[in-house]
Amino acid sequence: MQKRLPKRFIEKGDSATVHHLFEDLRKANKTLTLQKRRLLEEKNALKRWSEDLHLLNELSKSVVATLDAESIVLTAYKKMQKIVPHDILSVVLFKPKKLWVLSNVTLDIEEVDGIKALVMSAVREIADIPEDTAYKTAVKCLKRNKSETAVDKLCENPLKCKGSNGLFFPMEIGGSRIGALQLIRDSEELFSEHQYNIISMIVSTLTLALRNSEVHREVQEMATTDSLTGLFNKRYFCEMLTKEFKVSMRYQTPVSLMMIDLDNFKEINDRFGHQAGDVVLKEVSSLLTRSLRDIDIPVRYGGDEVAIILPETVMEQAFFAAKRIKKLLEERPVKFGKDSIQVTASFGISSSPNSGIKTVEDMITTADKALYEAKRYGRNRIGANDQIFTHDNAYLSPLAF
């Protein structure tokens, strides 16, 4: 049974004891308040992490659902806005040499160049790459409004942006750096530690997705590209010519086919050797690739023969394209060691729609016949079975130019 203090003791009280008890209670209350505040902060932090991880999961599903690099970067930019608000995202890949700049506000050419300089400067600090300006840049501005903010100051002197409104992450996989990611805000608000950590996780996901995209692209190239010349192979040629021909037949849009055969190629091999022949094929293929439009499809058709599919191109346009290529070949002898090998070619052209061409096979046969005529008339000529070149006896029919 608990003993009670004498009434006189309680009435009289012990002021020192009461004071100590009060201080203990005050400290305990303060400690409980701090703990409650910490628990509330931890609860909010966990809630924020839960929400961000949910968004991160959605982002991961979206970027791995496609193998197209453009779609991956654009999707990541839009999804990241919900997790870590920012104004400019730039992603650079070392292979292929590609730089994406995605912005919330309209950027002019000088601003894009400034951001590109910023990214490449930061990249050179983490990777041994030359000061190369050959990176293909894709710019996408999601809004048309112009913002007079820190972005403008950044673009005036981009190399000074290292901290307050910028984050930089190298993109690494398997110990190899494949590129980098840069985030920029148009305000002075610092990125928080939580935001830094969540972006680090996003970068890992994005790196894997872009690497998968690049592997897929390389596999596709191996399946559709000739290993010696870098041109498309005959399998790809058949697929694309069939596709373009069907479009031409359905919508009556023009498409032309140019067949090119190097003149006296066997003599080049016999005189200079097969290695020289390979060099000639490579150089001619490189010249063709540089001189054609992005929509044109150059193909190694077989041996020393090249085919070029020219979408949205009528016969006259194809003829003048062949004439330009013919002149380029004549003016650029191929260097092989100390030797200079003069290269010429014969050309055959066919076009659709054409009343005499009803199938893909007809189109190839027509171009082949025109090529044969060009060789029959002395090589280094352009042949085309089409009446447009026969008026006023300006050319022979079939054309042999």
Brief description of this entry?
This protein is α+β, with helices and mostly antiparallel strands and 401 residues long. It has 11 helices and 13 strands. A hairpin with a 4-residue loop joins strand 1 and strand 2 (98-103).
Overview of this protein structure:
The chain has helices at about 5-10, 15-65, 70-85, 110-125, 150-155, 195-225, 235-250, 265-270, 275-290, 315-330, 360-375; strands at about 90-95, 100-105, 135-140, 165-175, 175-185, 255-260, 295-300, 305-310, 335, 340, 345-350, 380-385, 400. The chain folds into 2 domains: about 60-220, Beta-Lactamase (2-Layer Sandwich); about 235-400, Alpha-Beta Plaits (2-Layer Sandwich). It is built from 11 helices and 13 strands. The strands form 3 sheets. It has a 6-stranded mixed beta sheet, sandwiched between helices. The longest helix has about 50 residues, at about 15-65. Helix 2 (about 15-65) packs antiparallel against helix 3, helix 2 packs parallel to helix 6 (about 195-225) and helix 4 (about 110-125) crosses helix 5 (about 150-155). It is an alpha+beta fold and about 400 residues long.
